[in-house]
Structures are given as C-alpha cells and as structure tokens.
Design goal:
The complex is a heterodimer. Chain A is α/β, with parallel strands linked by helices. The chains are: A alpha/beta, B alpha/beta.
C-alpha cells in the first residue's frame, strides 16, 4: 500500500507503468499523423510537386499530451486509488470495532456506521480480521460481548445488520466480557487494534428522584437538571476505556460538538405543557424544536427550547388548550431520529375525569338553582363529568372530586376520600349552608362555624368584590371582573400560613379560595356556593376559567393503580419508530411503568391491553434513565471525529470514466484534423446521445402507459409498479390496447397529461396535497383523466390498512371529486370489456365507488374510482412472471376476476362511455327494423 | 433537371436587370441577316421609318402610304429600315471539377457559371439578340426564351461543338479551363476556323489558385484520378502558384490566337462585376 496524502493506492506496483509514458510520448511523436483527405479538382497541376522542406508534419503537441494523459489516467486507475483512507486506524493484527449502539447513537447512526465501515474497508485491504463488539444488551437481553474474529467482508455484513437500541449501553458489562474473549482467542496485550465508536456518555448513572411537583403556576425559575456530580468514581465508560486500552492500541471515534439530547417527562400546567429537555453541554447556543403529535401523526404544536452555550437542558411551555392537549400522544424532537427524542404521553397527561357530588341531591340539577346545574355547565366542555356516590366515584380513576356543599360523613367515607387525596387526587369543595354547619377534617383551613353575611339588612358591611389574584396563585393572570360581588361566605380561622394557602381573596382580605397540599394531592375550598345564592361568581366567565385551571392542576388519571403486569403493545426501536415489541420484551407492573428502566426486557413504548378504549401506559426512555452526562475521555487516546469526514471513495472507476471521456474527445479531434468534420460532428452527437439523458417526458408522450402515484413508501410503490406491470401485460395479451411499461409519477412535478389512468394507493399516513399537486390532479380530471384510489382495506381486507379512509378524506380535500355512488349493476365499468358481477382485487366483497351516472360532465365518465381491494397486489407480477401476493380469500378465479376488472378499467379509461352506448342498441335496432 | 435550372431564373433575371440593355454591335454579315433591332442603314424589313420613295410598278397596293400620297399627285411607298439581330452562342462546362467548391460558404464553380450564363442571356434577350446553347437544336429569342434556354442548359452536355451554328456568330464559353492547353487549342481552333469568335470566362474557386491547405494532406481527384499525398502542402504552395500562372498565360495566348478574349472570375467575387466585365468585353469588341 502506498499513500500520497489523502490518496492511497491498493496496487502501487501498477504505477511503475507510468515510467513508460515518455516512451509512449516519443512513439506518438515520431509517428506522422494520419493525412487529411481533401478533394481537389486541379490534381494535374499538383502532380509531382516536391516540397522544398521535407520535415514531415507532426501531430500537434496538445493532442500528444491528451493521449499521454489518457494513458496516465488508465495506469493510475489500475493502481486502484482510494480517497480518504486516513479514516481507518493503522496498526497490525486483528481489528476490534466497539460500537456504542445505545439510544444516544441513533441520531448520527449513519455517520457512525461510515466510520466503522471505513475501518473495516481498510482492514479488508490489508487482509486483517475484524471483530464487532456492540456495547448495548441485544434484543434477546444478552449482555454485550465481543463477536468472533471474522473476515472483513463478513464483518461488514454483520455491521450493516446492526441497529441502535432504544436503551442504554452497558459498558461495565462490556468491559467485564473482554478478558474472556481475549482468552478464548488467545490474544496477548496489544495484539488487537481497537476502534471505539463511542457516544462518550456515562451510562448507568442513578436516576435523580423526580422532584415533587412544585405548586403549579407558581412563578419559579426555569429548572435545569442539576449537573451530575463530577465523576465520583470509575464509571462504565472509564472501565471499558481502560479495558480496551489494555487490549491494544485504542482509537476513539466520537461526534464532536454534537450534544446528545434526551426528552424528559413533561410537566402539566393549566393551559400549558412544560416540555423539558436534558443534553450534554454544547459549545454554541442552539435551540431544540419539540413537536406535539396526535395518534394520526398530525402536529398540533411546535415549541423551540432555547439552549444557550454550555446549557445542560432547557424547557419551554407548549401552549395548548386542554381539548387539544388531550389529543397529543407523543412529543418528538424535530430533526432527531432516536428513542431519546420521543416522549409518549399516556392517560396521565390527558384524561381528567371529574366526580361531582352535590349536598342537595334532589335539587342539584334544578335549572339556575342547583349546584350541579352550574358546575355541569362550567365543566362539561372540558372534562368527563361523573355523578354518583363517593364509593362509586372513587372506585374508578378520578382526577378531581367536587363536593358542592357536601359534608363528608365521619368514618369510611372520610377515610376513603382522604386516602384518595393522599394518592394524588384533587378535592374541590364549595361552601354552603351545610358545610358552614358541619365542617369536617378535609378542609384546607379550619372554618369558623356559621357563615358571614355581607350587605344584608342587619349588616353594616357591603357586599365585597374580588381582589386581584395573588402572585403564585394558580389563578394568577385571570382578569378579575368588577361585577363579581360576594354577599355571603364561610370564614377561615386565622391560622399560621393562611396567606400561603390562599388562592383568591376578597378586597377586605378574607380568603375566597384556599388550598392545601395533602400527600401527593391537594384540597381546594371555595368559600362560596357553587350556585349563585351566595355570590354572582358563577354568573361570570371567571367561574369557568377557575374551574379549568383547577382541572389543569389535577393529576392525570393513570388507569388502574396496582402492580398488574402490563404486556408491551408497541415499542420504539432505536430510531424512535413504533413497531412490534421485540421477543424478549415482557410485561411491566403498572405501578413501576412510569419509572421503569428501559432495557431489552422493557423497551420504551406502549404497554397495556390491546383493543379499543383499553388503558395504555407509556414507558419512556427519558423517565427511566439519567440525563445524559458527558464522560471524561481517557488522556492520550487518539480521537477521530464522527461525521464531516468524507467516506472512503474508490477513485478507480472515476479515473477510467475520465480516460474514456478524453478518448472520446481525442476521437472527435482526430476526425476533425483529418478533415472528416461531418463525421466528427456525428461522433460528437452520438456521444452526447449515449450519455444517459433524462428523456422520460418524451418517452411518456410516445407510448400509452399506465401510471401510479408515488407514495414515498418504497414497498408500496414497488407493489404498484408490479401491479400495473402485470395488468399492462394482461391487457396487451387480451386486447388490442398496447400499453408500455408503467411509470411512477408525483402529482405537481410530473406532467400527468400523458396517462389515461393513475393508480393511487392511499397510505394511512398520507397527508393532504399541497397546492401544486392538487392543481395538477384537478387539471388531470378536467382533461379526462381517471384516478383509481385504493385504500386497501375493503371487504375481506377490512382492518388491513386502518386509517386509510381518513387519509382519503385528507388527500381528496382539495380535489374536485364529484359525488360518488356504489357502482351500479349496469355501469359501464362492469362491461367495458368483460361482463363483471363483482370487482375484486386482493380482497373481495365491499363496494367500489364511482361518480354517479347522472353526472353528465365529461361524458358520464367518472374521474374518480374509489375502492379498497388492493388491486395492485392482485395484479402484481414479478420479474419471473409470477404473482407474489396471494389473493384473500384466494383462488385463481379471484385473480382472474381482478385482472378482468383491471382490463375493464383500462378500457374505460381509453374508450370512455363507448360501451355505454350499447345500452341503446335494442332501441336503434328496433328503429332500423321499422 | 428542368426545375433545377429554372429555379435560378429569377436571380439571373434580377442580376441582368441591373445593367443597361446590352446591344451587341453586330457585324454586318449578310449570311446571318435576320430581322432585329440593329438598323442596317438601308431599306428592308423593320419597324423604324427609313424613307418614302415613289410608287414603282410591281409594288403592292397595300404598301402605298396614303397619308403622304394625299399631299400631292404622286403615290409614295413607305420604306422601313432593315434590321438584323446577332446570334450569341453560350456554353458552360459540365465536368466533375466544375461541381467543386473550396468552402461551404462559396457556390460551386458550376453554379456560378450557370448564373453568369443566364444573366448574360437575360441581357441579350432583352436587347433583342438571339441566344443559343452550343450544341442545342434551337436558337431562342423574345419572351420565354430565357426559360427555354435554361432547359437547354440542363440538357446540353459535351464539348463546345455545334455544326448548326451560323458562321460569324458570337460565342461565350464558361469553364475552369484546367484541361491541358492542347485540348483547348484543338477545340478553339475548330471554332475559329468557322469564324466564331467571342469570350472565354474562366470561373475559378479561389482555393484552386491559393492552395490554402497545410500539413499532411492526401489530395483526391474528382474524376477518378489516383490520389496524390503531399507530406507538407505549405512547401509546394509557391511551385503550384507558378504552374497556375504558366497555365493562365498559355490560355491567354491561346485565346488571343483564336480571336477570343479571356476573363477570369472567382467564385468569392460578386457575380455583378463579372457580368459588367463580360458586357464591356462584348461591347468593346463591337467598337
């Protein structure tokens, strides 16, 4: 191997041939050039003329140089030059590639793989063997251990199969596995060259205990995750680094200045969701964008977390009304692939069932009089309201319990409510005559017996207005309407820290709303009634706003508490995509799920019972592991950057191509020199034509062909292509139509005017069309084009592609789709070529829809045909002429019928309602006969 | 073939229209007297008035000029001036070398020669002369003569021979005259012995004189001659120019000895100048 700067030659001895170039130059120089050919009529006078100077004409020096350059290029190309082989570590002996394949490696996984592949390529060139050593436990929950020493090609394919895991690596276990591997392979100290593609994080740190939820709404400084204590002892990273250094020369490859980010569980505030992020410090300021997504993948909100230089994290409020917030199921870090950038939000962040018990059960719902009437009207739009007895209400998960002037009975009832509050429930009580008489223990402040009347006939005091809400109150910031008057209230005993417990007070300073935290829950008391008897507060909009803030405060309901084991439903892979759980994943007790450590047995994702409406709980990476902390790199170890380094490139083919191009140039120039100008031009034109030109547009116009809309899903697009290929083949064999190879198109980019029929498979994730695409499709409809939408979920395929119906609505929102009706028995589509009783594809049964017959626009030819039979899969024919997809329920008959439907469809697209005229044949015959 | 030549007619006519009508000073040769526009200074057939003469016995009554006779007692007969036209015979060489052009921007020698020939014919016909292709069966005059001449131009091929040509007619030959001088001596003497005199127009491509090639060139003839390989064309350019000059001198001598004038025209020159020179040559001969 010979390297010249960044270029290295794999076969350097070939370069010796460069020495022959001067000889070649001399040979070319002494050989006279081929003579020009010239017609001349006065040949007679030229005969026998002898030039005074006899030096023969020479080939021009620049042409000689061109030819020598061609020869030099070919020689250099044969020496197999490689660009950028410096990316591989040197050294002798086998190569051990250690790859951190935890969650932190996912965002720049391709770059990390490029570094590893470059090292393997270098090892392949020098014939060294390679061992792969992923440091994360694998999907089968086996601890990490080094792989066998393999030839480089085999190691490369093993490496290509490696994927980042959605859990943290285990460097300590990896370090422990190293000695056994060295002993098994008989490797002495220093016998192995080691490349560690590391995420340079200290894994296995203890998870900091979640701080108790601070009083929501209270003004508080932006909390940053506390920086981890500086290296208290040998952590996993150091252990593995020293173990590797003992094995042989160690090179580290790490992403410089790319902070590793981890989404932490958000904090719910009324009207807001505080999104939190932890990261390793970065040298420059940046911002991280968080997207709030629904189950269908739509983005409801977007917030940018400012991250100043050196910050270890940040947070930002995601302003979302409760109604919208309840639809958010996941938070995504934009531009970051990886489980660390995904936070799944389960019921705890969403459902807020509210229980309501009024003191006067009979009159509670009387219009304008009962407590229940007012509360119902205020809460109904924002929460799920439940009525019933205390036992009945508390037997199910509840976020908020409202007791409107309802004293709690001593004994079991009071104990049950108190226990519920301790566990995190929020109890909201309204005062009233009953409560004023019999105050119980579940109150935030002790009350004086009896109520205080303001502005009555026997009182000098005037009805009081509301004072502005104190700072730190959850109601802070709500406007205080001037017309709210409190005529009567219950009074709190002046106790210590009464002001701290007061959320709202009147202008004379007496508390109107008090609250106290009990355990993980809290008790809130409104010192007036829930109806308009004591004050006109329920008549104002403030009442509704206050209710909503209290609901926002209440802890979400997290389903049945307890230690029931929840099986995994869907789990995240290393790149943050939801998918089937790995085989090793097992059930997790529901009381541990919020803090469970993600691992092979409990990958992050959804856990719970399958089926509609069942409780689903989220196990999140950010909740179960410590915030990322950068490790201290061992001193004296060479560090190579991941990313930004160009991958190794074999320059040979490029040099050969350049030589070929120069040869072609030489051909043209030589022809020109010999007087074959026309030939030279023709050669130049031919060469240009031989270049791969993008002549697709022209080709589309030259032949009739079917087209399919590219969905972006490579597999679906391939099925579409195979399907239309199979259908074109069938149609070409059975009918006079001659269809060329189908093509994939993108509306708005390709000209659709050449295609009689577009096949459009609708993915459940399909998004609404942008304006150019919608305009292109509408223009296509106007020109008489036909689009076959396929939702692939009809009939026997029901449920195969859930969400496709909604996707059809999204996709066709801006399209001029006429009213559709099921295809009638006498529709032209049923007899354009074959007589068809039904129109199956891969699935059978169900309906196929087309525009109603009475729409005379476009000659009654429907621009849209909509169905869900996955026709492309039924038509699909692979390169060997076989049908790769089975029909459901199956049978050759169904496939034949599918092909016949396709033929009818093509005939319909090509001939319009021509066959429809056959309806009138009897009438015409009758007229002719008479 | 016919459209080929007639297609050039408009251009040739336009070229001819730019010059004053050409009147060939006809030699008074009794054998070729024909009615024409040239006054013969004696009574005869013609349009122009010549004289009145007294009625003589034998004159036809129709010839009496009654208006003149009514002035006196005698009868007068009106006599017109006798007129005669010159016959000009034209010829254009048609060998392979004539079809050559030295550069795509220039016309071939044949094209240029035919253009000049037709332009000259247009002028002559407008002047009332009679024209004829050497070797064709007919002599043409008057309207439409130019088109028929163009047809003859395409049909007639061969050496400049025409036994049917009247003696003392004028001839105009268009060629490159690269053939050996002996061959031309033979042809021209055959013509001059019959009293035919005229003009030789040598139409040349400039490349034939300057030999503008360089380097190693293999020259190939147009008439199937063996090719000639020149290792360095630059080296033989001077010698070639000498040979061309010698050939030209020989040709001029040959023309003079046969009563002809020699003109040289290059295809990169405008055809108008050649036509003017040709006209001057024909008129000057008359003086």
């Amino acid at each position: 191997m010979l390297s010249l700067g960044p270029v290295m030659f794999a076969a350097p001895w070939v370069l010796a041939a460069l020495l022959t170039l001067p000889v070649l130059y001399w040979l070319l120089r002494v050989t006279p050039p081929a003579p020009k050919r010239q017609d001349f009529p006065v040949l007679r006078l030229l005969r026998g003329l002898v030039a005074a100077e006899t030096t023969p004409a020479r080939t021009p020096w620049w042409l000689l140089l061109l030819r020598v350059a061609v020869a030099a290029l070919v020689i250099i190309a044969l020496a197999r030059p490689v660009w950028g082989p410096g990316a591989a570590p040197g050294g002798e002996g086998p190569l051990l590639i250690v790859v951190d394949d935890g969650w932190a490696a996912a965002p720049d996984w391709p770059e990390r793989m490029a570094v590893a592949v470059a090292a393997i390529d270098a090892a392949a060139r020098s014939g060294r063997r390679v061992a792969l050593f992923p440091t994360a436990p694998n999907e089968a929950a086996e601890p990490p251990r080094p792989g066998a020493l393999l030839p480089a090609e085999e190691a490369r394919s093993r490496l290509a199969a490696l994927r980042p895991k959605p859990w943290a690596p285990d460097p300590s276990a990896a370090a422990a596995a190293l000695p056994a591997w060295r002993a098994a392979n008989g490797l002495a100290d220093g016998a192995v060259t080691v490349l560690w593609v590391t995420d340079s994080l200290r894994h296995g740190l203890p998870v900091p205990l979640a701080a108790p939820d601070p009083l929501p709404g209270a003004a508080q400084p932006i909390a940053r995750p506390a920086p981890p204590a500086a290296a208290p002892g040998p952590d996993g990273f150091t252990a593995l680094a020293s173990a590797l250094a003992a094995t042989g020369p160690l090179t580290l490859a790490r992403a410089e200045d790319r902070p590793i980010r981890l989404l932490l569980p958000p904090r719910a505030e009324p009207e807001r969701l505080i999104v939190r992020l932890a990261q390793t410090p970065a040298t420059s300021a940046a911002e991280a964008v968080v997207l709030a997504r629904t189950a269908e993948g739509r983005t409801l909100a977007r917030a940018a977390i400012p991250l100043p230089a050196g910050a270890l994290g940040g947070e930002v409020g995601l302003d979302l009304p409760l109604e919208l917030r309840n639809r958010v199921v996941r938070l995504d870090l934009e531009g970051t692939a990886g489980a660390g950038g995904v936070m799944l939000l389960d019921e705890r962040f969403r459902r807020r069932p509210v229980g309501l018990i009024a003191g006067d059960e009979q009159g509670a719902d009387a219009a304008l009089l009962g407590d229940g009437f007012w509360l119902d009207r205020a809460l109904q739009p924002y929460a799920e309201l439940r009525r019933g007895s205390v036992e009945a209400l508390l037997s199910r998960p509840l976020a908020l319990l409202i007791l409107a002037d309802r004293p709690l009975a001593e004994g079991r009832e009071q104990q049950a409510v108190a226990a519920w509050v301790e566990r995190g429930g929020t109890l909201l009580r309204f005062a009233g005559p009953r409560l004023a008489e019999t105050a119980d223990a579940l109150l935030p402040v002790p009350l004086r017996a009896g109520e205080r009347a303001l502005g009555s006939a026997l009182s000098w005091e005037q009805p009081q207005r509301l004072a502005p809400f104190p700072e730190g109150s959850p109601f802070a910031g709500l406007p205080v309407p001037a017309e709210v008057l409190v005529e009567r209230q219950v009074l709190a005993e002046p106790v210590a820290r009464l002001a701290e417990r007061t959320w709202a007070r009147l202008t004379d300073g007496t508390p109107l709303v008090t609250a106290e935290t009990r355990g993980r829950g809290r008790i809130v008391l409104v010192h007036v009634t829930a109806n308009a008897a004591w004050s006109n507060l329920p008549l104002s909009g403030l009442y509704v706003d206050m209710m909503r803030r209290v609901i926002g405060l209440s802890a979400g309901v997290a389903g049945a508490e307890g230690n029931a084991a929840l099986p995994p439903l869907e789990t995240l892979d290393g790149f943050g995509r939801l998918g089937l759980p790995p085989p090793s994943a097992g059930p997790v007790p529901s009381n541990l799920i919020a803090t469970a450590m993600p691992g092979p047995r409990s990958p992050p994702g959804w856990y719970g019972a399958a089926g509609e409406g069942a409780e689903r709980r989220a196990l999140n990476l950010g909740a179960g592991i410590a915030p990322p902390a950068a490790a201290v790199l061992p001193p004296g170890v060479p560090v190579r950057a991941v990313g930004g380094v160009p991958a190794e490139a074999d320059l040979g083919p490029w040099l050969l191509a350049a030589a070929l191009l120069l040869l072609a140039l030489d051909l043209v120039v030589s022809m020109g020199l010999r007087g074959h100008l026309a030939l030279a031009r023709a050669a130049a034109v031919l060469l240009l034509l031989a270049m791969p030109a993008a002549a697709q547009e022209g080709a589309n116009a030259l032949a009739t062909r079917l087209a399919y809309v590219l969905t972006g899903d490579a597999q679906v697009d391939e099925v579409s292509r195979q399907g239309l290929f199979g259908l074109s083949d069938f149609v070409n064999r059975r009918t006079a139509a001659a269809l060329a190879e189908p093509v994939g198109v993108t509306p708005g980019q390709d000209d659709l005017a050449f295609f009689p029929l577009l096949y459009w498979p609708i993915l459940p994730t399909a998004q609404a069309l942008d304006a150019p695409a919608a305009a292109a499709i509408n223009a296509y409809f106007r020109l008489g084009g036909i689009v076959l939408f396929d939702t692939r979920d009809e009939g026997s395929g029901e449920g195969m592609s859930s969400g496709a119906r909604a996707a059809v609505r999204r996709v066709t929102r801006d399209l001029a789709v006429p009213p559709l009706a099921p295809i009638a028995d006498d529709h032209v589509l049923r007899r354009a070529f074959y007589l068809l009783p039904d129109m199956p594809g891969r699935y059978t049964g169900g309906q196929v829809w087309a525009a109603r017959e009475q729409d005379r626009a476009n000659d009654s030819v429907s621009p849209v045909i909509l169905g869900g039979h996955d026709w492309a899969a039924a038509w699909a024919m692979d390169a060997r002429g076989q049908n790769p997809y089975a029909t459901i329920p199956g049978g050759a008959r169904q496939r034949i019928l599918a092909y016949r439907f396709g033929t009818n469809l093509v005939m319909y697209a090509l001939t319009g309602n021509y066959k429809g005229d056959q309806v009138h044949v009897p009438a015409i015959l009758e007229r002719l006969g008479n | 073939m016919v459209p080929h030549a007639t297609a050039r007619l408009p251009r040739a006519e336009a070229l001819g229209a730019r010059l004053p009508p050409l009147i060939v000073a006809a030699e008074r040769v009794a054998a070729t007297v024909r009615a024409g526009v040239h006054g013969r200074r004696r009574p005869g057939h013609g349009d122009a008035f010549w004289q009145f003469r007294p009625f003589a016995q034998g004159d036809a009554a129709a010839r009496v000029d009654w208006r003149q006779s009514a002035r006196g007692d005698r009868l007068f007969v009106r006599e017109t001036e006798s007129e005669a036209a010159q016959t000009v015979a034209l010829w254009c060489a048609n060998d392979a070398g004539m079809g050559w052009r030295g550069a795509p921007s220039r016309p071939s020698k044949r094209e240029r020669a035919e253009l000049l020939l037709l332009a000259l014919a247009a002028l002559l016909i407008r002047g009332g002369e009679r024209v004829r292709m050497l070797g064709a069966e007919r002599t043409l005059a008057g309207r439409g003569a130019l088109e028929r001449l163009a047809q003859d131009l395409d049909h007639v091929a061969g050496p400049p021979e025409d036994p049917a040509l009247p003696r003392h007619a004028r001839i105009v030959l268009f060629a490159d005259f690269w053939a050996p001088l002996e061959a031309w001596q033979q042809r021209l003497s055959a013509l001059s012995t019959r009293g035919l005199r005229g003009t030789l127009v040598q139409v040349l491509d400039p490349a034939e004189e300057t030999l503008p090639y360089a380097g190693r060139v293999r020259f190939e003839g147009l008439a199937g001659e063996a090719p000639e390989l020149m290792p360095r064309v630059e080296g033989v350019r001077a010698a070639y120019a000498g040979r061309v000059a010698a050939h030209r001198d020989g040709l001029a001598t040959l023309a003079r000895s046969n009563g002809c004038t020699l003109m040289t025209h290059h295809t990169d020159q405008p055809p108008e100048s050649a036509l003017l020179a040709l006209w001057l040559s024909l008129s000057g001969e008359a003086g």
